């Protein structure tokens, strides 16, 4: 099957995919119905590979998504299988390529049953979702919503065409209700919403085919995002020279640790060491120095009462990370301001972000690493607004703070001004525990100390952190701890 081995790196919006379709059809002379038949054939083959010999119940709406569904049903019949169609829209109202697909299905001996408020798939049937395409711009309602709920309640396996109906193609959010698919066959351009937000949960296994679109139709079209892959680690991490020493491998300074919170700063420091920084210093309150030093003797730990004691540490550092366990107290604000004003690359996380939200400002050569709640405070909106359109939230953060950004969450986005974000589709729900953000901050700081490039360190750090989480979760997601990532990180960062 064409295009099944890997997913493409570039992700596009629905509008961009429509433009790719237009270029393919109008500029390159590929008939629209030819693309539709290729899509249907690819999906039919994919379904049969996953569920061999199973009958199909294809639920069709309107437009080209319905046309794809009729092609799938026709292919099934042509192969000697059983297929029936339930139509929410009178197929006589279909136009263009979709109408032709319906007529071809009838010519193959197919029948269409009008939607009557319920689905009655035969035992063992696979339900094919061909209800709504990529152009959805409002919540699903009425009979379409009832059909979506019937598909989800059926207990049968579900294959979605192009994307699950009700999923926003760009933002990966549910538009009222959405189909929960076991498999999604998507075409021409990879939709960003399949890998962002709720998209991964709803899409199931993802299969892609470019439908033979000429490569040059993608020329000049800047993607909405670009996927990170495991190969990026090998490409982005230089080989160390034989005469390397700690002084050549950078000095990361971690600032944090409010009373009762020494663990966050220590975790970040340990992760920076595991990422390969030559030297790592933790600056914290005096009371925490013994515990951090005893727990990890490889860390240099200094108690600082304020900016004056912090100043010589800032001067020696290659990169500064502030925020883990920082709190929002007078001490916290004083050391934050000192780190902000220093002429050293700066990573801001956790309570550092909350302090920034209290007094927004910009500087050069810095990285912000918010989770959705912190991003909402930085943009003065609700967390729901962030999750509703993560790509837009990312862009607004970059624009407002003129910083490199890591917007954490399902489909973490990382990048900086003047470039499309990189999307990390790795990681798992087991990583939703305390300390994971501190580990990420430390990994990025450790890499930045060596590379001297914050955006590159952010991309590689996000990727390595997510892959380490997946490695550590092989024995189960529940009970995963932040420190479980430290050993896999070392292996992953030595590709």
State the gist of this model:
With 495 residues, the protein is α/β, with parallel strands linked by helices.
Strand order in space, largest sheet: 8-1-10-19-18-17-16-15-14-11-12-13
Largest sheet: 12 strands, mixed
Tally of helical segments: 18
CATH superfamily of the largest domain: Ribokinase
Span between N and C termini? 31 Å
* Low-pLDDT regions: 1-5
| Strand portion | 15-25%
Radius of gyration: 26 Å
Average pLDDT for all residues = 95
Query: Helix share of residues?
Result: 40-55%
Give the CATH level 1 class of the largest domain. Alpha Beta
CATH domain fold name of the largest domain: UDP-N-acetylmuramoyl-L-alanine:D-glutamate ligase
Number of domains: 2
In terms of structural class, how would the helical and strand content be classed?
alpha/beta
What sort of overall outline do the alpha carbons produce when their principal axes are compared? elongated
CATH architecture of the largest domain: 3-Layer(aba) Sandwich
Number of E strands: 19
